[in-house]
Design a protein that fits this description.
elongated; mainly alpha
């Protein structure tokens, strides 16, 4: 009877067993890759928003120019007929232009702050690269230990030189035993 259950098979000689060092190395590499990717994606998304706002402003300026031309033409062709609708539309376009300008300023400020945050994040993430390198070194040391070091020869014991002058000791006085 054959089993397709892989849990009972012994690991192959080439398979590495996961241990905390391998896991730490994998985590730091993955985190670093995802962090760089996320920072790049955030910058691209912010730039897309800025480009979209730029296109909206160009369209709005075109509409504004056309409306101004329309108003000027109407006023020259029919000076006695009020052009309230066109003026109202022109005022709405001017208000939209102001709002769009504010949105572009906020987006530019956001992009500037985002760029600064990305630089700082990636600078801090270099610590992850250092951890990855240290883990790699630790794994390398563990996997290929250095040859045993020869024991150092001990120095022969030498008598200490006391340079302090010794005090003369008082001689013990013995008292004759009392009879």
């Amino acid at each position: 009877m054959t089993s397709t259950d892989n849990s009972t098979k012994a690991p192959k000689a080439g398979d590495k067993v996961s241990n905390p060092l391998h896991l730490l190395q994998t985590l730091t590499r993955t985190l670093n890759e995802h962090l760089a990717s996320a920072c790049n994606q955030a910058e691209q998304d912010a730039q897309k928003v800025m480009d979209k706002l730029q296109r909206q402003q160009e369209k709005l300026e075109l509409k504004l120019s056309q409306t101004q031309q329309k108003l000027a033409a109407r006023e020259t062709e029919q000076p006695d007929k009020p052009a309230n609708k066109t003026r109202k539309k022109l005022d709405e376009l001017e208000a939209a232009k102001v709002e769009l300008h504010e949105a572009r300023q906020k987006a530019a400020s956001y992009i500037k702050q985002l760029s600064s945050d990305v630089r700082q994040t990636l600078r801090l993430a270099k610590g992850l690269e250092r951890i990855d390198n240290q883990v790699g070194q630790a794994l390398e040391k563990r996997d290929s230990p250095a040859p045993a070091a020869k024991p150092r020869a001990r120095r022969p014991a030498t008598p200490r030189n006391n340079t302090k002058p010794t005090r003369a000791r008082k001689p013990k006085t013995t008292t004759p035993p009392a009879n």
